[in-house]
Amino acid sequence: MATKTPWREDSSISRRGRSYPIWVLLVALSLPALIGASWFGIVESSAAGRSVSQSDSVQMSIERLVLLTEVRTRLLHEGNWDATARGIAEIGIDPGLVLTFTGVDLNRELETNQSRVDELLEQLDLPEIRRAVDGIRADDATQAARRGAQYAALENSLKAEADTLFDDALRTVGEMDSENGLTDALRVFEEAAEAHQSIAREFTLYFGAQFASLTDAGADTELLISSRANRITSLDEIDRIAAPTSAVRSVLEQMAESQATQTFDGAIDDFVAQTLETGAGENEGLAAVLGQLDSIAPIFTSSLESTDVYFSLLTVAADDVSLASAEMNQSAAARYRTILLSSIALVVMSLFFVAVAQRAITQPSRRLAAAASRIRNGDFTANEEENGGPREIRVANNAIREAAFSLDLAQRQAQALAEGDLDHVSLTEPTRGSLGASLQTAVRTLATSLQLKDKFQHELEFEAAHDGLTQVANRRESLAQLEAHLRSPETDTVTAVLFVDLDNFKSVNDAFGHQTGDEILRLVADRLHATTGTDSFVGRLGGDEFVILAETHDLDDAVGLGRTVLDSLADPYDHGLGSVHIGASIGVAIGQPGDKPAEVLKRADLALYRAKSSPDCQIQPFDEALRAELEARSELACDLERALGNADQEFVLHHQPIVKPHGDSVCTVEVLLRWNRPGYGLVFPDSFIPFAEESDLILSIDQWVLKAAVAQIPYLEPGQKMSVNMSSRHLTSPTFVDDVLAVVHGKALEGRLILEVTESAFVENLEDAAEKLQALRDHGLLIAIDDFGTGFTSLAELRTLPMDILKIDRSFVNDESAAALVQLLIDTGHHLGANVVAEGIETEEEMIRLRNMGADALQGYYFARPAEPDFGSDFGSGFAAAA
Predict the structure, then answer these.
(1) Which of 231, 234, 227, 233 is closest to 206 using CA atoms?
(2) How far apart are CA 790 and CA 808, in angstroms?
């Protein structure tokens, strides 16, 4: 079988007219013009347009750069005038003397600079900088030196944007390969700006140094030297770069001949040389400064004139940059216009040749377009009309007829798929040509994909809403269901939320492994479903926490459901390694229509927290009593926060003496915190310290008590010590040692300050606590173990603790039957090298008994109740009378 050539694919094509490829005619007529126009138009116009765009970009950058540089300059000037005016005011010099000696009105100069800064910031649209400047101006409390640093910080922030604009402009000019001197002008402008900023800084540094001991600003000689060196380097760089005929040269010559510049430079050199040779001396006071005004005034005037000369240099450099930028922009625009006109001419010529070629293919192409339009408009009926024209058009016409049939079939198949009829007859109907075969294959693939998609979509929706382990709803779906319940119309029922938390579930994982723990969670989910029934909703919030949503009549009804749940969960759980018993705690809350789901769930969580914290309570409703208690805790938290901000007025320290067993003389005073809570009167620590220890509030309270106690130590009698209680939460804090040392640093308290920590504080991390307490002992502080005998510290562990004092808990002291145990505790303390204090002495009999047992010190109501000290009396011996 002979193979057909492309010229003989369809015999009907060659029956009418001469057959020829369309590209032969088009290439012959339009190829030269099109190539020329395309090459010239695309390459040259693109290059010219890019040059214009780059030039415009550079010009806009330069305009903004010039404005940024001026506002930087003006900010430094404003800072200098502000610092000068405030510095003179701080050292007590009348501004009128400055006007008299120098002829300079400081306030007028400051206002002039401020006005120009405002104009520039408005032009540059820099609201954040504007707010910062307004903030500095409005803050009259800040010292002159600090305000100067603030102005310098703003100038540095503007310098970052200016540097970016400069680098971008310089890079763009380099890419344009411009020869008009813009690069050198930019570099001269940059160096002029740096030189001006340097001399402005030298103004501040020099005169700040002159009045350093009065203004307390200090003199940074190294910064002055560095700024002077930067200025000289910038001038040398300008001299190297600037064109011989540029206006910058003239300004440089004026600067070299300027008497004011020479005077100011000489003053700086003399000051630096004197400082390096002799060091900074001390000013003899305001009189000395006033005596120097007649010598400083010429230097002050010279510095102002020098700053003006450098500003002139910056202005001329900015003009050179703007002029070079404008020239470059004009050159790029002229080149673009020339290339554009040439491109238009070539395009016109090309269009003429294309028009000639178009006449040969217009009619056949229109007929072909009409056939394609019918297909586009949905008319897929076959067009049997023969089409003349170039061979390619005739082949295309046959292909369109074939495509029309395939598209008609595809349309019917798409309709079937859209209706979900995957068994429609059109899906298996034969088609024509390779296009039809491809469409048929695509349709069958799509049908299969739709079936898989539906299945996969259902699986995804289930997985997104359910917990992968227990197959109950996950947290997100649970909240969505709760929200739906709360949006439901009001009925005679309410939405009950039961927050279920398994007790000691971690021990199951630890004992049997996570695989067994997962199996237990699945069994719990099954029991919850079985117990609550199909009318209730069960979800897993995470870990061992579940939630139950149920419609109940009231809170009591919901609590009853919770008890039923607890009973079902109490039965043992069988697993591969045996059976295990676990309990649960439940918090119950009622949601009303309009409540937010998160708030209702939080109420249930708070109730659960209360249930878990009460050993005899497994289920806790969020009722009015709990609400009131939580509100009281919230009020207590707010009051404590406020009290810490007003501690010196609300907190007060009471003292209780610790006396020697023989003679009853006071050896130590223990400070005890009281809170004068507004509306409540004097509150004892057991009413608020346990709450504070639940958060870091206790750290702040500890800090205040320690500071207040240390401040009172100087009032003690010689040899007496001060004992301060520290919370166990603070002891576990990583900042504990630093917090204590920050208070006692430099106070010379060695051997006079005792820190008391309870024995229970060592349960969590004995080694860490011992290390921290030893660090404090190394700094001369004494350590007392309070409530000794009530904790679970073994003798072996006790030996590792750094301690100086053991305080026996009052529960042992007041119990005569515990006399043998008390004697053992005293002997143990002595064996460990510690002094032993017996707390809670309330009767003479107890005092005698503990003294005979060998206690080293005694404390209790028998001697004195805690009381606020009277610093106006003989404070240190005031307890002796009470004892």
Answers:
(1) 227
(2) 9
360 within a domain of the structure (yes/no): no
658 and 608 co-located in one domain:
no
Domain annotation covers residue 162: yes
Asked if residues 22 and 392 have their Cβ atoms less than 8 Å apart, the reply is yes
Helix (H, G, I), strand (E, B) or coil at 695: coil
User: pLDDT digit string (tens) for 10-58?
Assistant: 444 444 445 445 545 555 656 665 666 566 666 666 666 666 676 677 7
Per-residue pLDDT band at 353 (split at 50, 70, 90) = low
pLDDT tens digit string along 716-771? 999 899 999 999 889 889 999 999 999 998 888 888 999 999 877 776 788 888 89
Cβ density class 151-166: b for 16+ within 10 Å, e for less: bbebbeebbebbeebb
- For 478, how many CA atoms within 13 A lie in the half-sphere containing its CB? 25
Residue labelled with tokens 């059109």: 426
Question: Cα dihedral sign for 276, 282, 284, 287?
Answer: positive
pLDDT at 482 over 80: yes
Residues 260 and 148 in one domain: yes
Query: Tens digits of per-residue pLDDT, 153-181?
Result: 887 888 788 778 777 777 777 766 555 67
CA-nearest of 157, 148, 169 to 66 is 169
Closest CA to 656 of 729, 711, 725: 725
Nearest alpha carbon to residue 810 among 829, 827, 784, 787: 787
Is it the case that residue 539 has pLDDT exceeding 70?
A: yes
Chosen domain end from 434, 461, 488 = 461
Task: Name the residue with higher pLDDT: 851 or 64.
Answer: 851
Same domain, 595 and 680: no
pLDDT of the residue at 210: 63
Query: Domain range spanning residue 528?
Result: 468-622
In a domain, 416, yes or no: yes
Does one domain contain both 535 and 608? yes
Residue 214 has pLDDT above 70, yes or no: no
Concatenate the DSSP letters of all residues of 585-612 into one string.
EEEEEEE-TT--HHHHHHHHHHHHHHHH
Please name every residue paired with 668 in a beta bridge, in sequence order, or none if there are none.
Answer: 658, 721
Is the distance from CB of 417 to CB of 450 less than 8 angstroms?
Answer: yes
Same domain, 139 and 283: yes
Q: Biggest alpha carbon distance in the chain?
A: 140
Interatomic CA distance for residues 58 and 65, integer angstroms: 10
* Per-residue pLDDT, 30: 60
Q: 759: Cβ–Cβ under 8 A, 6 or more apart, which residues?
A: 785, 786, 787, 788, 789, 790, 791, 793
DSSP, collapsed to helix, strand or coil, labels residue 843 as: coil
Same domain, 331 and 390: no
Quickly count: other Cβ atoms within 10 Å of residue 625's Cβ. 9
Domain count across the chain: 4
Structure-block tokens of residue 532: 């609550």
Does one domain contain both 251 and 391? no
Which among 461, 484, 514 is the end of a domain? 461
* Nearest residue to 497 (alpha-carbon basis) of 510, 509, 483, 514: 483
User: Does the pLDDT of residue 571 top 60, yes or no?
Assistant: yes
Q: Is residue 623 over pLDDT 90? A: no
CA of residue 879 relative to chain centroid, distance: 54
| Together in a domain, 444 and 472 | no
In a domain, 200, yes or no: yes
CB distance 364 to 389 below 8 Å: yes
Residue 328's alpha-carbon distances to 43, 53, 124, 323, 332, in angstroms, are 20, 11, 24, 9, 6
CATH number for position 859:
3.20.20.450
Residue 116 to residue 546: CA distance in whole angstroms: 67
Residue 351 reports pLDDT greater than 60 = yes
Under the banding of pLDDT at 50, 70 and 90, the label for residue 217 is very low
Contact between residue 727 and residue 689 where contact means Cβ atoms under 8 Å apart: yes
